[in-house]
Design goal:
mainly alpha, two-stranded parallel sheet, 4 strands, Endonuclease III, domain 1, 10 helices, 194 residues
Length: 194
Amino acid sequence: MVSLGLNRRCSWAGDKPIYIKYHDEEWGVPVHDDQKFFEFLSLEGQQAGLSWITVLNKRKDYKRLFYNFNILKVSKMSDSEIEGILLNKSIIRNKLKLYSIRDNAVIFLRIQKEYGSFNDYIWSFVNGKTIHNKLLNTNDIQTKNEISDKMSKDLKQKGFKFVGTTICYAFMQATGLLNDHSKSCFRYDEIKIL
């Protein structure tokens, strides 16, 4: 763990400024904004098979190329627009992953219509409350659980792509459905208060 005086942070944050900023300001903070949910769902899908820092380093470019993750605008992107993005070296150039962002936006809009918001839909998996795990250190973090299994199955049935159980678990951590900060991390109690 990196020392912060009396405070400590999760060891996975390491010493890279981009990771520290993400850990200290975003990871585990409960999200209730559909556009932010769409951004995290899209970015987690891009991560599949890669490290999260790879995606974080390219996040600005994804936001620029995908209309700041405006769900409606992304849902209307043409194949030729996505093919053009495939030529851009500033992002992960995986055709299936890039097309999934647009295709998932279409389904995301359907969920909003059916449930009133994606927020209402996704928080139903945890009964509307953050699950606060009591991890002694980040080595205890799981990569999936029964809830991520259920979420993955439901998202896939609805037609989403790149939403396996491991991706769903990481999505839940990122968006505050789960608080997986270690108990010794200064953010653990801060997240509990939110």
